[in-house]
Amino acid sequence: MRATIMDEPLTLPLILERTERLFADVPVVERRPDGAVHRADWGTVCRRVRRLADALRRAGLAPGARVATLMWNHRAHLEVYFAAPAAGLVVHTLNPRLHPDELAYIATHADDHLLVVDEGLLEVLAAFRARAPFRRVLVVRHGATGALPAGCEDYEAFLAAGAADAPFAAVDERAPAGMCYTSGTTGRPKGVVYSHRAYVLHALMTSLPDSIGYSLRDTVMPVVPMFHVNAWGMPHAAALNGCALVLPGPRLDAESLLDLMETEGVTLAAGVPTVWLGVLRALDAAPGRRRLAEGLRLVVGGSAVPEAMIRGFDRHGVTVVHAWGMTEMTPIGSVFAPKRGFAGLDEEARYALRATQGLPAALVRMRLVDDGGRVLPWDGRGRGELQVRGPCVTGAYHGHPEDAESFTADGWFRTGDVATLSPEGYLRIVDRLKDLIKSGGEWIGSVDLENALMAHPAVAEAAVVAVPHPRWGERPLACVVPRAGARVTAAELRDFLARRFPKWWLPDDFVFLEAIPRTATGKFMKRALRARFRDRFRGAEGAP
Ligand code: AMP
Known about the structure:
Layout: H1 12-22, E1 27-31, E2 37-41, H2 42-58, E3 66-70, H3 75-86, E4 90-93, H4 100-110, E5 112-118, H5 122-126, E6 136-140, E7 153-154, H6 155-160, E8 176-181, E9 191-195, H7 196-207, E10 219-222, H8 234-241, E11 244-247, H9 254-264, E12 268-271, H10 273-285, E13 297-300, H11 307-314, E14 319-325, E15 332-335, H12 347-354, E16 359-360, E17 365-369, E18 384-389, E19 413-421, E20 427-432, E21 437-439, E22 442-444, H13 446-454, E23 459-469, E24 473-482, H14 490-498, E25 509-512, H15 526-532
Parallel strand pairs: 1-11, 3-4, 3-5, 4-8, 5-6, 6-7, 10-11, 10-12, 12-13, 13-14, 24-25
Antiparallel strand pairs: 1-2, 8-9, 14-15, 15-16, 17-18, 18-19, 19-20, 21-22, 23-24
Helix pairs in contact: 1-2, 1-8, 2-3, 7-8, 9-10
The structure holds adenosine monophosphate.
């Protein structure tokens, strides 16, 4: 017997056709690089997506050819997000914060055919264009006129060649639709190629009420850049659900974000903890000054969310939802949701639970595996490498079909994260495998120490790294950024940690910095700290 259900392909055009019919008048607002706020709606966006898809087809790109972007979060980027896949092409987002050598490597490795770039990022492009394979470069000028550099074309003129009522291409749900490279914290960045099917399933699973939970009444603002893992799927999910969309452009300082959140009535925003720490500080500095939407939710992930941040936002009536994910997972892997019984927990336990990375998302399978390859029970204690599978998880890297380091023989993806899973299913990321600190043969988790330090009132940010030690192999060093105007000593911080951790976990030393160096995606660059303080404990003696 065969199932009798239609084999309708799960593609982005299937989403778009509904968006333009049902949600044409729903706002899509952008703040352009020059700071000006422009308003449009999904109807306009969908018409322009049809035009652009048609223009791309007329330009003669072969099916599956790469359309790269080098842009901030704004409407033109949104148009390419949908138009390239709808034309049977692949949108490949490039991160303008990367080093030109890395951009040249990634664009070449992906064989990017055409690039769409912000006028304000032409300088970034100039630093690697000669080493990149772009055949055509379209410049988004947001209404500006005047001469363009040699070898560049105007995005608007290109788009105008397409028809606003052109049909979308009939695409296979398994056809490639998008592409992203990992941050490359070890070795060269690796490419992940997303299918239409993965995008649609990801949009559906993150729409569930106990996941991110999008609604047509939401006004959604992805602060997470659109060049970083599909902006966590927000543009797709916003289209699917008919949410109003607010695209904040390049200005991501706290006041600029708060301005937009206030004037546009944002109800759901997403970004990394560093962005929201700044916003929290601004709210704390002037409580009650901002009129934020009632029920505002912030989805925070990309690195661990300190419990202190969740408490801090609660004081302003803003709910932090902790999520975990990876480029390789499209990217959402888990989201916090309170299970039955949560309300009966005491306050400490409630916050501790909310600071976990949450429950495995729908369609995501998880397991923990120890050093010896044994699968661990979900008992909340056993720490092991987190391995995942699912219809939105990559099964290989682009151009690396065999990769035994990243995939197990039985088909699971090795995340490189060390985690625990409680019997109720709450995931807790303990560390990156390579960031764990191995002291005298025992593991110390840097994330736990960092979160505890960031709960100290005088600490703005903290990163704890492993430093080679002659006796213990490695010992923790805490790098601390004090809050503006606050004073704190190493001894005070040590005492503060001693209340929560065994003595051998306490950092051997504390260094005070003005800022923690960051990766191109805003995460702490622990590699740089490890290199800088490599010799800190050389010649050290004695017990920790
Ligand atoms: P990326 O592919 O750049 O998104 O990086 C994925 C990695 O970021 C994960 O493997 C984790 O190590 C880290 N990460 C993402 N979200 C979280 C989170 N909520 N808590 C702790 N680490 C996280």
